[in-house]
Amino acid sequence: MGDQKGYGLLKGKKGLIFGALDDRSIAWRIALACNREGAEFSLSNAPVALRLGTLDALAEKTGAEIFPCDVSKEDEVQELMQQVKEEHGKIDFMLHAIGMSPNVRKNTGYKGLNYNWMQQTLDISAISLHKIIRYADEADLLNDGASIIALSYIGAQRIFSKYSDMNDAKALLESIARNYGSRLADRGIRVNTISQAPTRTSAGSGIDGFDGMYTFADKMAPMGNPTADECADYCVTLFSDLTRKVTMQNLYHDGGFVAAGVDEEMINDLAQLYANREGEE
Q1: Of 70, 93, 230, 242, which shows the fewest CB atoms inside 10 Å?
Q2: Which is the catalytic residue, given 135, 163, 180, 252?
Q3: Per CATH, which fold does 14-280 belong to?
Q4: pTM
């Protein structure tokens, strides 16, 4: 991304980016792309994530201020929105790149979910979108015509067993985006989700079987899996004024995976694999 030309698509715009952890995270790459395109923004993540990650380096590189916030706590979200407005004024875009499942981390099977952990999954990964939009709206932080994006995954529509209750969380996330999008449309505020292909990030590496999910999607998608930087470029267009009437959408950024059947090479490989198995029996 370092040599990529900027077009000034976000010149004069201000934003708030949630979820950047380290230089492998998609939110980090989105922040760099927004900076390249002329935007100013603040960064936010949970205090524990700030201790584990390297967000200070991103803040130094982009001139952003960091605001710690645990999105599971309403009072912290409310206070954050007031702080951002007081220190930086109203904003034009907001990114939700927050997701965590204790059940997935601990490899708990879906049929035996820990329900307390599931509540945490839904709260942090989905309901937090409702909170940040609600309290940004109540603080009058959002300019008319602002754009809000949340990162999703096709597990909202299709079942990936290792993704467990995150499948449910992403479905709820997309529903919240549609619902809030309908309620902010009169101010020209857009709310969309981007269904990104499996991407090699620090968070993704914590999913059991992630390598298999990544390879499967990469082989099935006619264009292969898009990178985090390519996702960042797509986000820039949705934050810009070029997409003023795009709202309440779940937008697939997956190299064509969502519309693909079965790759011919994969069909041949599977046929050979099962033929070999039958020959061994």
Answers
A1: 242
A2: 163
A3: Rossmann fold (3.40.50)
A4: 0.93
* Catalytic residue flag (residue 234): no
Measure CA of the first residue to CA of the last residue in the chain; give whole Å: 51
Catalytic-role residue among 135, 153, 180, 252: 153
Average pLDDT over residues 149-154: 97
pLDDT higher than threshold 80 for residue 280? no
Give the pair of three-digit tokens for residue 52.
Answer: 């584990």
3-class DSSP string for 98-153? CCCCHHHHCCCCHHHCCHHHHHHHHHHHHHHHHHHHHHHHHCCCEEEEEEEEEEEC
Sign, CA torsion 43/49/55/56: positive
pLDDT of residue 160 exceeding 80, the answer is yes
- Are the C-beta atoms of residues 88 and 65 closer than 8 Å to each other? yes
Assign 254 to helix, strand or coil.
coil
Determine the pLDDT at residue 206. Answer: 66
> Does 163 qualify as catalytic in the annotation?
yes
**Has residue 281 got a pLDDT over 70?**
no
Which token pair is 185?
A: 């449309």
